[in-house]
Amino acid sequence: MCDDMLQYRDGFTGRIRALAQLCRAWPVIALLGMWLINGGGAQAADVPVPPSQAQTQSGSFAPPVVRLNLSEAMALFLKQNLDLLIAKYGIESSKGQQITARLFPNPVGQVGNVASFTQGNTLAKTGALTLQVQQLFELAGKRGYRIESAGFGVQSAEADFEDAVRQLGFTIKDAYYRVLVAQRRLALAEENRDRFARILDVNTIRFKKGYIAEVDLIRIRLQVVDFQSQVIESIQEGESARADLRQLLRLSPATKLELTTEMDYRRVDPDMGKLRSVALEVRPDIRSRRAAVSQREADLKLAKAFRIPDVTIGAGYSVQGSRGPDNQQMGILNLGVPLPLFNRNQGGIVQAEVGVQSAQAELDRTVNQVENQVDVAYHNLLQSRRLVEAYLAGVLEDARSTFTIVERAYERGGATILDLLDAARTSRTIQQNFIEALFSYQRNLFQLESSVGQEITS
Fold this sequence. Notes:
By secondary structure, this protein is of the alpha+beta class. The protein has helices at 2-8, 14-22, 26-37, 51-58, 70-80, 82-102, 123-126, 142-208, 214-249, 272-282, 284-305, 346-411, 417-452; strands spanning 65-68, 108-114, 128-137, 256-259, 311-320, 329-336. A hairpin with an 8-residue loop joins strand 5 and strand 6. The termini are far apart. Residues 1-60 have low confidence and may be disordered.
């Protein structure tokens, strides 16, 4: 056994080899084995490290960290979001239809054989082999109308993609700022918890010395627990908001997000009349509806063009058998024109007219919706801006100062524990309401930008 151990422990220092060679008793071997198991062989070069430990030592288990400001988050969203990728396929499909619209009808090749089998004739003697090619020529501008319709279809698909970016862009901004709100709430809850934890430590000493009643100490302890529960709720809210943001950005759940944009107040004072006119001009859903109307009008022109029949021209060559007529080789030229006696595409024209009317109604409805969306978002922004500025005018600072003043008065015995708790709750409520008002203002600003269809800078 000692020899086996010597072979296994080849990489050890000379002192360990000497100790192994001297071992002759089982107790010594057992002690040496325990030493090996407990890590004594850390210097051996050939001792394998478990994969999990190796990864931990190399730092590969550390979650990847992604630092994003709002603009970077939007860029990553536009690159990786699956909904936008799906919307892009609609553009490619419309371009395929546009390619098809430009194509000409394929020619038709015909091969025929005519023979006489009477009076002893055979196929070899009297047969006539006919080769013919026919081509359909569309009249009344049908191909041009079809190309025109497909072109408007591409424009509509591109506008639909931009509209998907507009709508989902609001979603990503909202998710980004919900993470910021959770961070602000967590910071506020931790600040209140730590503050009351210090108050609890001081008052525990005061209680032991008999300066305060036990009921006051209990009230402070309960308040600390309440703030701790708010910390936990804020952490859970933040994790949920980060999960939503990671899903929109197609990031792994193991990714650690660090958001660098601050949720600060930036006053905007937009012009309502200008916003409405800009929205009617640049909103992609309105542009999509306008392109749809133009496409339906092109379809109507195409449907009316189908009243004029197309012409089929054919040309060919015929080779006859040895006993055919004197002219054994003949050229063939024919012209085919449908006679529009019954079907003049009456039903197709009616359907195309209804399509134009329906597309126009969709456009009118979208315009009305956009005007109302801009109006509602604008007034919501004004109201939320007024509330935020009211907090910033002094209410927020007054709540913080009141809490500090009451806390100092309580330390000197000039205020009761109920006064302190009331001031703490008031300060917390005011600060939480300010965070909510700031988030509501920012969200209404994003909503107004989404309603207008472009970013608002002033």
